Amino acid sequence: MLKAMVIDDSRAMRMILARTLAELGYEVFQAANGKEAIETLEGAAEGVSLILVDWNMPEMNGLSFVRKLRADQRFHGVKLMMVTTETQVEQMMTALEAGANEYVMKPFTREIIEDKLRLLGVLQ
Amino acid sequence: MAVLTGNASSGKTDLQPENYRFLQDCVYKESGIVIDSDKHYLLEARLMPVVKKQQLTSLNDLCNLLRATRTPDLRRQVVEAMTTHETLFFRDPAQYDALRTVLLPQLIEQRRALRSLSFWSAASSSGQEAYSLAMLLREMGLGDWSIRIVGTDLSEQILDRARAGKFLQIEVNRGLPVSYLVKYFNRQGLDWQLKEEVRRMVTFQKLDLRDNLRQLGAFDVVFCRNVLIYFDQQTKKRILEQLRGALAPGGHLLLGGAETGVSAVDWFERVSIGQAVLYRAR
Ligand SMILES: C[S@@+](CC[C@H](N)C(=O)[O-])C[C@H]1O[C@@H](n2cnc3c(N)ncnc32)[C@H](O)[C@@H]1O
What we know:
The complex is a heterodimer of chains A (about 120) and B (about 280).
Chain A: E1 3-7, H1 11-23, E2 27-31, H2 34-42, E3 48-53, H3 62-70, E4 79-84, H4 89-98, E5 102-105, H5 110-119
Parallel strand pairs in A: 1-2, 1-3, 3-4, 4-5
Helix pairs in contact in A: 2-3
Chain B: H1 11-14, H2 17-31, H3 40-53, H4 59-68, H5 72-82, H6 93-110, E1 116-122, H7 128-139, E2 146-153, H8 156-164, E3 166-168, H9 169-172, H10 178-184, E4 185-188, E5 191-194, H11 196-199, E6 202-206, E7 219-224, H12 233-245, E8 247-255, E9 268-273, E10 276-281
Parallel strand pairs in B: 1-2, 1-7, 2-6, 7-8
Antiparallel strand pairs in B: 3-5, 4-5, 8-10, 9-10
Helix pairs in contact in B: 2-5, 3-5
Bound molecules: S-adenosylmethionine (SAM).
């Protein structure tokens, strides 16, 4: 089973995204911020191939997380999608430059997530 | 004192059978769209807003009004309400991959001298299909070729939206790579408008697919996606034959995912490219 991770400081949002991904056939890990995510990725969540990450979070925000992950060879092939309330073009560009593969603006629907995953070529 | 009587106002109990058939006929005549005989719920959900707008109380009243008046506007409202306009950018990415990797490179090679290509999004709805293609062509460096992209639809209302090239956040969220959003759209408050350089590549006009389809000229690629499913076999067949006539020699037809099994493909050769199925004019 392919592994995915959802990173968001809102428990409800994590649950929603985790369920969507689970329905799409992923084993899903969760983290409440970037720092926690890195720790989990180095432990139980080894082999994750898809990460959905929020932008605004305490400890380590989504952008810093994306930068940190992209700087680490081990996570080279991981698909990263930001899922955030931030909707400025400049922020999208920053996220792309940092190494995000896709970007979803909240609020989203299940179709939106599916269509984006299809674009990333990771819809199973 | 009101008594709760379950579902007294439901269309299923109220709509007279002859009125059900009348509405089916009305929509069929105006658009070719077939409404099956078990769609009471759908009729109710889609048409009650029209009933309210006309300050009537039931679907039966609406039928009576339709029968008693000749105003095409009311018929149009009914058809509009019964029409599905759902669409999205890069719907069916496999077809766009086929265009990008095989079809367009071939066409570019063939037209190197002429530097001109033509495309048709038949049943364009709000324009996402036509504009996806326009963006793809720009990405492939064809921005300075003579490109003709025509989008057509039966609904004037949806064509107005298409022409504006303006989309809601929820629409640009769907199917559109964020790199294209950043590159080809301007944010306007809560909406996103396509930049002029993309909008000017596409023209939209009203066209009923049951009419003569050769009036637009010949196209290299025709998209006719997610619309034939609403028609009966006979209408489908006639439209497919006409689409064959609207293709340049060797041109390609792109159908929707649910439409690939369409039987009337004598005029086309089925071609698989990657995950996509296309139809080449014979
Ligand atoms: C579901 S949309 C398809 C949009 C787009 N091709 C896609 O695949 O995403 C169907 C469209 O067909 C249009 N339509 C329905 N009957 C038609 C007819 N007889 N002639 C032309 N367009 C028609 C509707 O107005 C609607 O916008």
